[in-house]
Write a structure and sequence with these properties.
With about 400 residues, the protein is of the alpha+beta class. The chain contains eleven helices and 17 strands. The protein has two domains: about 140 residues, 2-Layer Sandwich (Beta-Lactamase), CATH 3.30.450.40; about 230 residues, 4-Layer Sandwich (Phosphatase 2c, domain 1). The strands form three sheets. The chain has a six-stranded antiparallel β-sheet with strand order 3-2-1-6-5-4, sandwiched between helices. α1 packs antiparallel against α2. This is Serine phosphatase RsbU, regulator of sigma subunit.
Length: about 400
């Protein structure tokens, strides 16, 4: 069995970037006489799963109860028996906690546990390979998009670090909406030894100009962070960069957050409007931070750090004003009661499901019409060192 997995992993590494799925297909047909192999990727809105080999073929809506949907949501293998003794094996396609989709292998008979484990192991290698290959080919991005992205959205999605990540101390996930036309709202993170750094931006304006402003801000923050600068240095470099580029005419409300993965001590620079809410048990409350000036408003603005503790079991949501200030049809702001209610309803869901739940509730609040403003939701589940991030 280990030799078979090593051979299949080698086949993935040697495949051209646009032929990774075909390499997995050949390897599994040879090793197990599989009758069908395919990869289904989640679309940008995470509303459905779509075939790489046949991009018009869907495994169904993620609101359904099919085997593929159960596999994607539970992140566990699912066996789906079919006529003639055949069995479809669905396994999650996940790299470092980012859920890409699901991997399908159809066999002539129901597999034993070692075979399922082998397919699941190959799926891990396949997911990692697909993430690397995604930089070299457009094939997988074409599969994921169900409609044309605006130019601004194209820039925003390319700028993201991913949509979720898992660490022994935490789970983290985020979602942008409207997925195909988002302009300025954004999130970024970096997982480093002993520390998680998270940035959430409430971009100003709409369309391409907003995306360009956000891109400048994110890269200025990254430049300071990658040079060893802390939150204050990150905020001040980004603010000065924006000011000297736009002379105070354009600015970006930003929340910079870092958490010590050994202690759970959080440090924050609140430079504008993104809010932090904590779900502890069944109680949702806003973490009060002193709001400082948005990045880029004035020259040589100085920022200070505030601190608070995150306890094992805490869930933090960071949301932009497109979420908490939404007032469709003159209703009260979404953040007053509806957002807290939707956050409480996620307490048994993993972070990757929770962001989708809050976004779906936001769309429902808008009566399923297009959002009037960009919206970003980031969810951080804190487990603590040696903790188990399971819900």
């Amino acid at each position: 069995m280990p030799d078979a997995l090593a051979a299949m992993s080698r086949a993935l590494r040697e495949a051209p970037p646009d032929q990774v799925v075909e390499a997995a297909d050949r390897a599994l047909r040879s090793a197990f006489a599989a009758v069908r192999v395919d990869v289904f990727l989640a679309d940008y809105r995470i509303s459905g799963l779509w075939s790489v080999l046949d991009p018009e073929l869907s495994a169904g809506s993620l609101s359904g109860q099919g085997a593929a949907q159960r596999c994607f949501s539970s992140q566990q293998p699912v066996l789906d028996p079919h006529d003639g003794g055949r069995c479809r094996v669905w396994v999650p396609l996940t790299a470092w906690g980012e859920r890409l989709g699901v991997f399908l292998v159809e066999l002539t008979a129901s597999p034993d546990r070692p075979t399922v484990d082998l397919v699941a192991g190959l799926a891990v290698d396949l997911a990692t390979t697909l993430r690397a290959a995604d930089r070299e080919t457009d094939r997988y991005r074409r599969t994921r998009r169900r409609e044309r992205l605006s130019m601004a959205a194209e820039m925003q999605w390319d700028l993201l670090p991913g949509r979720s990540v898992t660490h022994e101390a935490f789970q983290l996930a985020g979602q942008l909406e409207p997925a195909y036309s988002v302009g300025g709202d954004h999130f970024d993170w970096s997982v480093d030894p002993g520390r998680l750094t998270l940035t959430t931006l409430n971009g100003a304006g709409t369309g391409l100009s907003a995306a360009m402003l956000t891109a400048l801000t994110v890269n200025a923050i990254r430049n300071a962070r990658r040079s060893g600068g802390g939150l204050v240095e990150q905020a001040e470099l980004a603010s000065d960069t924006l000011f000297y580029q736009h002379r105070g005419q354009r600015h970006v409300a930003t929340l910079l957050l870092s958490v010590d993965t050994a202690t759970g001590r959080a440090r924050a620079v609140d430079a504008g409007s993104p809010r932090v809410l904590r779900l502890r048990g069944t109680t949702v409350e806003r973490i009060a931070l002193e709001q400082q000036l948005p990045l880029g408003m004035f020259a040589e603005t100085r920022y200070t750090v505030q601190e608070f503790d995150v306890l094992p079991g805490d869930r933090l949501f960071v949301v932009s004003d497109g979420v908490y200030d939404a007032q469709p049809g003159g209703q009260e702001a979404y953040g007053e009661r509806a957002m807290a209610r939707s956050m409480r309803s996620t307490r048994l869901q993993p972070a990757t499901e929770a962001v989708g739940t809050v976004m779906r509730e936001l769309f429902a609040y808008h009566a399923d019409t297009d959002l009037r403003d960009d919206a970003v939701v980031v969810c951080l589940d804190w487990c603590g060192p040696g903790g188990r991030c399971e819900r």
